Amino acid sequence: MQAYTIEQVAEILCVGRDKVYFLIRTGQLRSIKIGKLRRITDRHLADFVASLEEKG
């Protein structure tokens, strides 16, 4: 399993860091916390993209 930083996810999704934090805050994108660090796994990312595809 791969765990990405906020910055890496922002780059992958072609959005800004603030947008990634917004998606996490609103529950659209899941994440985990390791100590003080926030990470998004490849599974979280796949689930988020799948949810976008379902919305059409």
List the helices and strands and how they pair.
Elements: E1 3-4, H1 6-13, H2 17-25, E2 32-34, E3 37-41, H3 42-55
Antiparallel strand pairs: 1-3, 2-3
Helix pairs in contact: 1-2
Concise summary:
The protein is 55% helix and 18% strand. It contains 3 helices and 3 strands; from the N terminus they run βααββα.
Q: Structural class, judged by helices and strands?
A: alpha+beta
Taking pLDDT < 50 over at least 5 consecutive residues as the criterion, the unreliable ranges are none
For the terminal residues, how far apart are their CA atoms?
Answer: 27 Å
Strand order, largest beta sheet: 1-3-2
Quaternary structure classification: single chain
Please describe the biggest sheet, giving its number of strands, its sense, and whether it closes into a barrel: 3 strands, antiparallel
Order of helices and strands: EHHEEH
Instruction: Give the amount of beta strand, in percent.
Output: 15-25%
What gross morphology would you assign? globular
**Average residue pLDDT:** 96
Helix content: 55-70%
Number of strands: 3
What's the tally of helices? 3
